Amino acid sequence: MKINKKILAVIISIMTIILLVGCTKTQEIKKDEAIKIVDSYNREISLEKPPERVVSLSPGATETIYALNSQNSLVGRSDYCDYPEEATKIESVGQITEPNIEKIAELNPDLVIASAHFSKELVDKIEALGIKVAVLYGEDSFDGAYKNIQDIALVLGKQEEGTKIVDGMKKKVEEVGNKVKDLKKPSVYYVVGFGKTDFTAGGNTFIGQIIDRAGGDNIAKEVDGWNYSKEVLMEKNPDIVVLSDKYDSKSGFTTGEGYKDLRAVKEGNVYELDDNMLSRQGPRQADGLEALAKIIHPEAFK
């Protein structure tokens, strides 16, 4: 009986060692497993480990990098990457669509993150230098924004943080929806550009979708894209006008020929908004939705 106990103890010890070795190997495989994502050009991007040096040409990606608390890896940015303000201290490599490739090479990044405006030709030029490029831009929807954030989080080794950001955005989007869903929708015109030519957010744009989610009736919902007719704007005569808080847009619009006669202008319902919160695919888009909903339905947020 004693012998059997000894044998049993040996067997248990051997099995324990085998299990521990097996677990160790599994952990090592997971640890050494390459990071893989498919970018907007349907290319598989593979990295052995999270990049230590990143150049971001995408304002939305830059905002995401800061939200993930990974800004220490950021060594370069585009001229348009201006949020948070701290990002402006990072060295610029030029415009989104025409970056200084020599400057990028000097910064010696492990990865360049670009957005939808980046051409395949530029991707090839940078990758010819031995630098990996990921063009990351999801579909024009909140689901697209969520995926984009999660892809960047995966690349940077911050999946848990990325999930928290997305969960917070989803919660805010749901809360806004619940507050405005039963309210009457006032007509809304979103100004992208005005003057000789008028531009707005058509029904098939993400901003157009956000107007609807914020409880507004987009007067351009039947239009695709961004071009709009000033004559139709005068005819629709919206209840609310929303425009950028930059470039003194409100002053120019409210005193402009034709625009000054709109009901929204006469009744003081022209509002400014940080348009980057809506147009940049990143963590602030849910905040942009909430800000727009507060303009359209202030009574729902008292």
Automatic annotation (TrEMBL):
<feature type="domain" description="Fe/B12 periplasmic-binding">
    <location>
        <begin position="53"/>
        <end position="300"/>
    </location>
</feature>
<comment type="similarity">
    <text>Belongs to the bacterial solute-binding protein 8 family.</text>
</comment>
<dbReference type="GO" id="GO:0071281">
    <property type="term" value="P:cellular response to iron ion"/>
</dbReference>
<keyword id="KW-0732">Signal</keyword>
<dbReference type="InterPro" id="IPR050902">
    <property type="entry name" value="ABC_Transporter_SBP"/>
</dbReference>
<dbReference type="InterPro" id="IPR054828">
    <property type="entry name" value="Vit_B12_bind_prot"/>
</dbReference>
<dbReference type="InterPro" id="IPR002491">
    <property type="entry name" value="ABC_transptr_periplasmic_BD"/>
</dbReference>
<dbReference type="Pfam" id="PF01497">
    <property type="entry name" value="Peripla_BP_2"/>
</dbReference>
<protein>
    <submittedName>
        <fullName>Iron chelate uptake ABC transporter solute-binding protein</fullName>
    </submittedName>
</protein>
